[in-house]
Amino acid sequence: MTSRPNGEPLVRLSGVDKWFGELHVLQDIDLSIDRGEVVVVIGPSGSGKSTLCRAINRLEPIDKGEITIDGARLPDEGKELARLRADVGMVFQSFNLFAHKTVLENVALGPVKVRKKSKAEAEGRARELLERVGVASQADKYPAQLSGGQQQRVAIARALAMEPKVMLFDEPTSALDPEMINEVLDVMVGLAKDGMTMVVVTHEMGFARRAANRVVFMDGGRIVETAEPETFFTSPQSDRAKDFLSKILTH
Amino acid sequence: MSPVFDNIDQFVDGFLTSLEIILWALAGALPLGVLIAACRVSPIPPLRAFGTFWVTTFRNTPLTVVLFFCAFGFPELGINRSFFFFGVLGLVLYTSAFVCEAVRSGINSVPAGQAEAARSIGLNFTQGLRYVVLPQALRTVVPPLGSVLIAMMKNSAVVGAFGVGGDLWSTGASLTSAQGYPTFPVYVGGVAVGYLIITLTAGALLQLLERKVAIAR
User: Fold this and answer.
1) CB of B212 within 8 Å of any CB in chain A?
2) Among A56, A98, A169, which would you mutate to test the B interface (most chain B Cβ atoms within 10 Å of its Cβ)?
3) Which end of chain A has less neighbouring CB within 10 Å, N or C?
4) How does pLDDT run across B109-155, given as a tens digit for each residue?
5) What ipTM was assigned to the predicted interfaces of this complex?
6) Which of B107, B105, B67 is nearest to B87 (CA)?
7) What tens digit of pLDDT does each residue of B13-46 get?
8) Inter-chain contact A85–B121, Cβ cutoff 8 Å?
9) Which domains does chain B have, with CATH numbers?
């Protein structure tokens, strides 16, 4: 790890609760993420891990508690929220590239419309980022013409183009064929090494071991256990984590 | 067919007047309908309520009633314009409700992830709609929107009959009832052909547009 946690946390969730109707999907969540820290969120499906990730840029509004990013409270709606989201990169399970725009346009759209950069500048920077994630040769194609792994790397470049303070990954490899998972994870490991602050919802143990500072284990809407990756995978403390790991590690 | 050729000048005039009504109504109803659709999907509850109210009002009121209100209601309120203006206004208000719903069906056909991705790179609601959602909605919107617009073109006859006058339908009416020409050749050979020229051309243009906005997924 290049940078160790220091100073004021970049992302802080305190006393966060959220309900989907009757379902109490986030229960009294407290979590602080420091600058440069990589946190992997793991847990069974329905544990609230994706909701937690999406709450950080308010794609899911919360019902109680407070979320701050770089010291600023997450605004409710409108311009302030849009400004904040520009500083928080998001990578989705299903890529969500803009289907009617080329790869290059996908990456340059935010910088042009939100950061008000010139088209030439934004496209120049977009090409650099596409180079960095290894899909520069696909710049003029449409998303549907790319493989899943390529699309996800473009999605990472699109998020990076906004120069975010923190990147959120919501199961970034779950929709990929096995042979494409590594090309995406390699890019993510590279980002982690460069000191990007990251929240990653994933089941990829390899990634957690290689890149994460901390593993957060969730179940039933609560954070059950937090530990360093090696400690978590070799000697989990809670029964729920032991049970979960025994199920996914036997295969 | 001589009743048509004898009065071809009048038919051409009628055709141009119909076209004028249609083009003005198009210029009004399309942007207004898109705007109301934006209201209906907006995150702001009062705007959503306004959009719903608008659609409910104009979609469920007969066109003739809307026209009556425009032509006689507005003057009561002290707003005086030409019959042509009020006729077109009525058609615009009425059609905008249908345009809105066609556009909204297109917006709903775009996967939610597209709007989420737009928001997550910091685009605000209007930008997300304009740069990401609407361009993709257009593809699904063209066929239903085409039907709405062609219906609007034919509804221009109601506007003409309502008192604007001088359009294709009114030309036919005055030739048959005031000048005693036979009904069949006037309406089939003149009036219907005139409307067909407009609607078939519109249909062909819509098909071209549909091919142009088709995107790979």
Assistant:
1) no
2) A98
3) C
4) 999 999 999 999 999 999 999 999 999 998 889 999 999 999 999 99
5) 0.90
6) B67
7) 889 999 999 999 999 999 999 999 999 999 889 9
8) yes
9) 17-166 (1.10.3720.10)
